[in-house]
Amino acid sequence: MSHIDPAILALRALGEPTGTSHDDHHVAQCADCQIELERLTRVVDLARQDGPLSLEQPPPGVWEQIAAAVGEDAATAAPSASAARTEPVVGAEPVAMTGAGRVRRVQRKHQRLTVALAGLAAGLIIGIGGAVGVAQLASAPTSQVVAQVELRSLPQFPQWQGASGTALLQNNGAAKLLAVSVTAPQRAGFYEVWLLGRDGTSMISLGDLNAAHTGTFALPAGVDLGFYSRIDVSLQPFNGSTVHSGTSVVRGSLPTSAVGAGSRA
Amino acid sequence: MTRNAHKGCTTVIPVDVPSDEEVSAAFSKGDPDALRLLYQRFGALVFSLARRSLGAGPDAEDVTQQVFVSAWRGRDTFDPGRGSLAGWLVVITRSRIADLLRTRQRDDRVMLRLAVGTSTEAPAVPSDQVVDRVVLADEMARLPEAQRLVMTLAFYSDLTHEQIAEALRLPLGTVKSHIRRGLRRLRSRLEADRVPH
């Protein structure tokens, strides 16, 4: 008796009705396949329980305490805290918080900064706490993928060479959702997703990636993706600042086709 | 599944995150760099478990620190033949959390904290289910990017595997393979870390 295709078993564990009536018949009769299906289903249930999984990085000071406790040479570099020393933030200045939420608006003297990096930290910044859990996708009636964007590291940040990512723009009828996944080294701090405006100074904060470096964000209703056409992921230090750190890990541009479809969110 | 079916998928592994084998080997040898590797690899796992049990505040940081110091001092007691390094750390973490909770119980201030409602849940040593969720999160974070994205969509979106393949412009076989191998890998990790020490 040949067993059911393991891929079909995995999809069934995810709740996707797939396979043939022959497969149904086999699973009903085969204890091995039933056990396998149950074990996989347990993993799926565990993953879905309470929504997406995330880990929290310990604050940088913890490693120093450990190193000190075991009497290690202080010269031993902290595993991730060393990475907390990000590039100097060009044009950074104290941020004015307006309101209690994440919405913030910083206006300052406009400077002609030709370097894109400089533009990131300067100018008008509007952050909108539009992050939603990926689980919310599950309740969406239909999700239509509008565009897939490859995210790449930038030449001016050689330390992120090799970092990459994917952004998936979806339309579920009610809202535009952006699912982002990034492959980059674990560093002190956290990764934040931004939409960058064509003027090089405007940006919208979409939210933070989880420890798995993934996240799904609802775009603000009415956002003009013809203008906010670039997706940027920054590494943000835990310094309380709500401004782009100036360190861009990866970036990508929405295709014009998606811009048209997405401009009226 | 032929290698060709994987054409077009990105499998870049984070460059400076050591593999479990590297960490385990360095740790068993007492390599001076091993503690740093251990923390780099499992710091988030231990801290997340502590946070889930103890909530926000310095206790979770203290426990994290104690776990790695204990692990280093007791590294001779780690036997790779008896289970995974992560599973061993989980046992130590639970033990340190239990110690801390006992101390807290003796501390009248905890009553005050509970009374003012700063803690919504009674702190407890993490259940098997909490441990499993944290371990699962850790393993998800270790998946190559393309596979992680496929698994995230498979778990949390309403997309079928055909829709995922279309969305990510991956061959159907690749998506099926990512799902099959991904689920199996997550399951294996859960089972490996559950081995009692």
Helix content of chain A: 10-25%
**Rg of chain A from C-alpha positions?**
22 Å
Give the number of DSSP strands of chain B. Answer: 0
Structure summary, number of beta strands of chain A: 11
- What Rg of chain B do the Cα atoms give? 20 Å
Q: What is the H/E order of chain A?
A: HHHHEHEEEEEEEEEEH
User: Strand arrangement, largest sheet of chain A?
Assistant: 1-2-8-7-10-11
Summarize it:
The complex is a heterodimer of chains A (265) and B (197). Chain A contains 6 helices and 11 strands.
Question: What does this protein look like?
Answer:
The complex is a heterodimer of chains A (265) and B (197). Chain A contains six helices and eleven strands. Chain A has helices at residues 6-13, 21-29, 31-48, 61-69, 116-121, 256-262, and strands at residues 105-106, 125-127, 131-132, 144-152, 164-171, 176-183, 190-196, 203-208, 214-218, 230-236, 248-253. In chain A, a hairpin with a 4-residue loop joins strand 5 (164-171) and strand 6. Helices cover 68% and strands 0% of the residues of chain B. The longest helix of chain B is centred in the middle third of the chain and has 22 residues, at 85-106. The chains are: A alpha+beta (265), B mainly alpha (197). At the A-B interface, helix 1, helix 3, helix 4, strand 5 and strand 6 of A face helix 2, helix 3, helix 6, helix 7 and helix 8 of B.
What attributes characterize this protein structure?
heterodimer; A: about 260 residues; alpha+beta; six-stranded mixed beta sheet; five-stranded antiparallel beta sheet; 6 helices; 11 strands; globular; disordered C terminus; B: about 200 residues; mainly alpha
Secondary structure layout:
The complex is a heterodimer of chains A (265) and B (197).
Chain A (H helix, E strand, L loop, with lengths): L5 H8 L7 H9 L1 H18 L12 H9 L35 E2 L9 H6 L3 E3 L3 E2 L11 E9 L11 E8 L4 E8 L6 E7 L6 E6 L5 E5 L11 E7 L11 E6 L2 H7 L3
Helix pairs in contact in A: 1-3, 2-3
Chain B lengths: L19 H10 L4 H21 L3 H16 L11 H22 L1 H8 L12 H15 L2 H12 L4 H8 L3 H22 L4
Helix pairs in contact in B: 1-2, 2-3, 2-4, 2-6, 3-4, 6-9, 7-9, 8-9
